[in-house]
Design goal:
With 428 residues, this protein is α+β, with helices and mostly antiparallel strands. The chain is built from 15 helices and eleven strands. It has helices at residues 47-54, 66-72, 98-111, 118-137, 144-152, 167-172, 175-185, 201-212, 263-277, 283-291, 324-341, 345-363, 366-380, 385-395, 398-408, and strands spanning 6-9, 15-20, 26-33, 77-82, 87-94, 191-197, 236-242, 248-255, 295-303, 310-318, 415-421. It has a six-stranded mixed β-sheet, sandwiched between helices. Strand 1 (6-9) and strand 2 (15-20) form a beta hairpin. Helix 12 (345-363) packs antiparallel against helix 14 (385-395). The longest helix has 20 residues, at 118-137. The termini are far apart. The relative contact order is 0.16. The mean pLDDT is 95.
């Protein structure tokens, strides 16, 4: 499978990638802005996520709430997300609504600050606080990942704090602080616009030039990546006692950065994790869950970051009555054994097949395809990754996967965040 991509850059720096697909009369518009929580300064955390909310609160020519109303009114669906490395905005609409979607996006990307008043700022601060209470503070294990980031990455590192940020920082933010953040990051030369769907490349570029071409603002200079982080020199550990359903073990590992010279190393480390726990017959799943029933589940995965490091995770939900420390020792033994022996041919074949199935399934949908293209264009300057990933996956060898496990996934390099269940205390 090969997707034909048309690339164009406007004089103001906006990168456009168009992938025509006339199978259905719909179009996905996807914007990736190169700003996430890693770009925040001390005392100003949570700003990237705050802007995800503010971008739907109106702009110079759009009233509060009208962005959603206008696109949903023509049958569209839309949303936005924030992460460490980026913020993205996306909508899928009928082909005839493409101009409307581009006009709305251009207005808020060019003229948002007209609507960022004290009232809007106060309102969205309250929304973010409520989201934090619902998703982090009042959920079992809700603070687990935030604790993992703070444990595996040192103080001051771009990935040390989560995207939700500090409520104290948001409370202290002035309207001017928020305006300054927008001006520094939201600009055409820090944005990738991907259009996938029922439109020709010529027509798409023409419309983007019409609606975005007048924006001349430039982003503040981008800093270079921080120095790569090696594996932890010794284990780090945080114990949490909480009213959770059962004990849970989070083992985190630094991995190579996803892009640049370390992309293949990251891919090999990611495949190692998949061999360990991403298959029904993988060591962690087969032994600890199916056969010995020491864990209710074991989930593994890699988060690809760009700023000198990525993150690998092994999360085990401890079965009732099982010794948590003993289960952690068993997981560590499996990690050491895999790093010594490497994957079997059957594991490599299964991991590749599973990755290919997931990749092709995602690319079948226009919205996910646009997101993949935007991701690798914005963060890695590689829009063609959508066409080359499976070839790169096939080239990784057994020896590379074993070497990646030996380098990055040894238990001595783990950061452990362990939840231990406590019983709630009833008040007499």
């Amino acid at each position: 499978m090969h997707f034909t991509l048309e690339e164009h850059t406007l004089p103001n720096g906006l990168r456009i990638v168009v992938q025509p697909d006339h199978t259905t009369p719909t179009v996905t518009v996807n914007l990736w802005v190169g700003v996430g929580s890693r770009h925040e300064e001390p005392g100003r955390t949570g700003f990237a996520h705050l802007f995800e909310h503010l971008m739907f609160q109106g702009s110079a020519n759009v009233a509060n709430g009208e962005h959603f109303q206008a696109l949903m009114g023509v049958g569209g669906r839309l949303n936005a997300t924030t992460w460490f490395d980026r913020t993205n905005y996306f909508e899928t609409i009928p082909s005839g609504a493409l101009e409307l979607a581009l006009w709305l996006e251009a207005d808020r990307h060019a003229n948002l600050l007209a609507a960022v008043t004290q009232d809007n700022l106060d309102n969205q601060r309250d929304v973010v606080k409520e989201e934090k209470r619902q998703r982090y503070d009042n959920q079992p294990y809700g603070q687990a990942l935030s604790t993992v980031y703070a444990t595996v990455f040192p103080e001051g590192h771009p990935y040390h704090h989560s995207t939700i940020g500090s409520m104290e920082d948001l409370d202290a933010a002035s309207v001017q602080d928020v305006h300054d953040f927008f001006t520094a990051h939201y600009a055409p030369d820090n944005t990738v616009l991907t259009i996938v769907g029922d439109v020709t490349a010529e027509r798409a570029v023409e419309l983007v030039e019409r609606y975005f071409g007048h924006i001349t603002h430039r982003a503040a200079p981008r800093r270079g990546p921080v120095d790569p982080l090696p594996p932890l020199a010794e284990p780090a550990r945080v114990e949490v006692e909480d009213e959770v359903p059962n004990d849970r073990i989070h083992l985190a590992f630094r991995l190579p950065a996803e892009g640049g010279d370390t992309r293949r190393q990251f891919l090999a480390a990611s495949m190692a994790l998949d061999c360990l726990g991403g298959l029904s017959f993988s060591p962690l799943e087969q032994s600890l869950v199916r056969e010995e029933q020491l864990a209710n589940s074991v989930d593994v995965g890699a988060m690809g970051f760009v700023d000198g490091v990525s993150l690998g995770l092994v999360v085990a939900d401890v079965a009732e009555g099982v010794d948590t420390d003993g289960l952690e020792e068993r997981i560590c033994a499996e990690l050491d054994a895999f790093a010594d022996e490497g994957p079997t041919p059957a594991q490599m074949e299964a991991v590749r097949a599973q990755a290919e199935r997931g990749w092709l399934s995602a690319l079948a949908a226009k919205d996910e395809r646009a997101d993949v293209i935007g991701h690798y264009t914005c963060l890695h300057d590689d829009p063609q990754y959508v066409n080359t990933f499976l070839d790169q996956l096939a080239e990784v060898t057994v020896d590379e996967v074993r070497a990646a496990a030996d380098r990055w996934l040894r238990p001595r390099s783990r950061a452990a965040v362990v939840y231990r269940a406590t019983q709630s205390q009833e008040v007499a």
